[in-house]
User: What shape does this take?
Amino acid sequence: MGRSVKMIGPMSLVWMLSVPVAAVAFMAGTLNLGAAIVRWTGSQLAMALFLPVSILVGAGAWMLVLAAAWRLRRNYLRRAGSSMSAVVVESDLRYKYRSGTLNFDLWRVNVEAQFPHPDSGAEVRVQKQYLYPQFREAKARALVERLSVGSSVPVVVRKNCALFDIPKRPVWADIW
Assistant: This one.
């Protein structure tokens, strides 16, 4: 049995560098759209509310864009990749107090699984992270229970990319 290698491809690096740039551009576009609506309506109320409403709408729409990107990526890997079973070697649930800029408490689920690569036969590991808001603690605990150490998890693999074939979307950096 060979050594264990973590799977990360060059596209993962491209993804992790391009998503923040795309998020800034997306938010700038949302703010420009909000400003155009203010100019079109000429309303003082629209002028007062354009910044907070544009930011909230932009952030919500960006989450939908990330969800769509994940669904497209998962569907592509399901079509072009190999389905197999992996063994969970690490499963962790942690409470993140006041994480991020909005000061929300989060539950972070970290899962790492190991499996033989379908092409090379080498033992590889894939790690993904999932975030749940504080009020979804039961769902976070259920995922950790389902993906406990030693359990089997379905994975989809293509070349040097792999993802867990479960319905929950991982954090933005782990989509690719």
